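Batch manifest line 296
LIGAND: calcium ion
JOB: complex structure
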Amino acid sequence: MRTFILGTDWGSDCDDVVAVRILTRAVHAGKIRLAGVIINHVMTDSAASLDGFLHREGLKDVPIGIDKKARDLTERVSYQKRLAQYAVRYKSNEDAEDGVKLYRRLLAQAEDKVEIAEIGFLHVVADLLESEADEISPLTGRELVRDKVARIWSMAGKWDEDGGREYNIFCTPCTRAGAYAFVESCPVPVTFLGFEIGADVISGRGLAKDDLLYAAMCDHGSPNGRLSWDPMLADLAVTGDAEVAGYTAVQGTARIDRETGANHFTEDAAGLHSYVVRKYDPAWYEARLERAILSE
Ligand SMILES: [Ca+2]
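JOB STATUS: finished
ARTIFACT:
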């Protein structure tokens, strides 16, 4: 079975919660295993709210890591307090392991290659790549990723124009530097799903009023659904095949401008990077996401 580690900027937008719903339903359906979640945007109730949601989703033993450096990111709380009420294992961020250490531990322990789905900022994965050998593993982070990661799926960038800019990359100097370092040094294939993919696709419209995901979306101010960047990345990653998930993949080499966060792309059949292009209209993806969100 394919194993995933999720990276998320859990907190500022509710599309991360929709994405986690898609992943937890995929776990229950026996499609994937979720080995851990690393939070890369730290707020007061980050770990507790994620733990609470995972427990309510029926996943009770997923380890949570967090960016202990928590550099220059803003606080915009919406659903955290509500979800934190259900926390069991992680009552505060102090209970969560450092994100890089958890990545290293999960990769060192993995018997088969895993995949990383990233629906937030890229600076913690970049820190993983730059990490040195330690008590967890004699391998550097780059060696661990090379040996233990099959592919990284990243919701980041804007690929329908040269010089496009997208939040997960340009948000702060920290995220820009992280995205730049990640793209330059990641030794395994990366599939990007850009801003343009989810910008007119709504998900989370068909939820029951007693669904905790619905409550979280209301807390965010999105009772009628939300744009679908992270859910579409989750669906693409779980599906594991761009064509089947409704996309054409463009292969090549991505580049990030460290100062502005602008992205560039050079097509190359041998490149390690790809970005996806939609094949269908928004309704096709909305129906697909609704099935993934509501499946038992
Ligand atoms: Ca996100």
